[in-house]
Amino acid sequence: MTVSILHRVTGSGMATVGSLLLVWFLAALASGAQAYATFRDVFTLSDGRLNVIGWGVGVALTFSLFQHMMSGIRHLVLDTGAAFELKLNRRLARLTFVGSTILTLAFWLYVGTK
């Protein structure tokens, strides 16, 4: 049940937060250099690296993406008629959290090395 609810929450969250950030970014870009600098300064430090807010938003959106993806893959397996046994179903549900956490860490470790 938790995975199903989280699947809906992550989908809605990505759509809402992503849309708001995109609109803010485009409005700042269209409004000129000062507005864009304000947008950029919310998420980055003076040397261009992400600050705490930038990391927080980035990690949250990345985790949401990977959690939604892993849950979607689980639902595809269930749609084939497989994995309805309670023990296997619970194991796959837990693996969505493990997989999304590992993918998020791997993504940000990769980004951090670039």
UniProtKB/TrEMBL annotation:
Q: Which residues cross the membrane?
A: 51-71, 92-111
Q: How is the cofactor bound?
A: The heme is bound between the two transmembrane subunits.
CDD domains, per database record: SQR_TypeC_SdhC (cd03499)
Record-linked Pfam families: Sdh_cyt
Q: Which GO terms of type biological process are on file?
A: tricarboxylic acid cycle
Does this UniProt record's set of keywords contain tRNA processing? Answer: no
Residues binding heme, per UniProt: 68
GO CC, alphabetical: membrane
Q: Which InterPro entries match?
A: SQR/QFR_C/D, Succ_DH_cytb556, SuccDH_FuR_B_TM-su
* UniProt protein name: Succinate dehydrogenase cytochrome b556 subunit
Q: Which NCBIfam families match?
A: succ_dehyd_cytB
Its assembly, as annotated, is: Part of an enzyme complex containing four subunits: a flavoprotein, an iron-sulfur protein, plus two membrane-anchoring proteins, SdhC and SdhD. The complex can form homotrimers.
Q: What does this protein do?
A: Membrane-anchoring subunit of succinate dehydrogenase (SDH).
- Give GO terms: molecular function aspect only: electron transfer activity; metal ion binding
